């Protein structure tokens, strides 16, 4: 009897095993995580830009008129800047002098456009260093005019009239860049050397109180070197195309536009020496936008 009962239990257990196995759940493999690649700014790039710039051309000037009369020898007060009078007669001494030093500031403005090329390297901590060179065709320009006269007891003894203008025909920069990247956003500061062709012109008329005058026109076109500093923001639209906006301050230094001196005797007892010189200092701000292709 016991043997029959035990066999029945074992049989029922064997018959129920497949049903229990069918109810058990099997482990399911989890899907692989999706890895989103982080953008890297490392690599070479080339691009184009357009912008607007301006600030001022500064014209430091020195104009003078010295009147000599009979009475003894004299030394010109402007000899260091312009040189001694070349034909001063014996027995004349300095009676009075008009000396004017100062500077005109001329507002400048204009559009420009060009291109840039460079290289960036991004460190693991997201800091980015790079170097960039750019070149721009420019329309930044301005004009001015002025005069300086010498009077004695309301009598005009002489003076100088002038007009002048300048234009930055083209300019470029060679700069380092240092900034921080938040994935596709790159904020940076930049600075380095600047160069550009500055074309300046002037028309000068030096005259005396008797109506004698001499007109001189001068022009200069020089490639000047200076410095630049600024900042920018760049955004990676795709893995290869980036958009940038950038501000730069550019200082192209100083050039001499004109230096002249004239002299002559007025009547029997007066000898007049007049002269003028003018320099051009070029500084301007720029703001530009551009596209780069990175590889």
Structure description:
This protein has one domain. The chain is mostly beta strands.
Main beta sheet: strand number and arrangement?
Answer: 8 strands, antiparallel, barrel
* Silhouette: rod-shaped
Low-pLDDT residue spans: none
Number of helices: 2
- Computed CA radius of gyration, to the nearest angstrom: 40 Å
Strand order of the largest sheet: 1-3-4-5-6-7-8-9
SSE pattern, N- to C-terminal: HEHEEEEEEEE
Q: Portion of residues in helices?
A: under 10%
Structural class: mainly beta
Give me the oligomer status. single chain
In whole angstroms, how far apart are the ends? 89 Å
What's the mean pLDDT score?
83
Our estimate of the beta-strand percent is over 45%
Task: Spell out the blueprint of helices and strands.
Layout: H1 2-23, E1 43-70, H2 79-82, E2 92-107, E3 110-122, E4 127-152, E5 155-182, E6 185-208, E7 213-236, E8 241-266, E9 270-294
Antiparallel strand pairs: 1-2, 1-3, 1-9, 3-4, 4-5, 5-6, 6-7, 7-8, 8-9
Give the key terms.
mainly beta; single chain; about 300 residues; rod-shaped; eight-stranded antiparallel beta barrel; about 70% strand
Structure in a nutshell:
The chain has 295 residues and is mainly beta. Helices cover 9% and strands 71% of the residues. It contains 2 helices and 9 strands; from the N terminus they run αβαββββββββ.
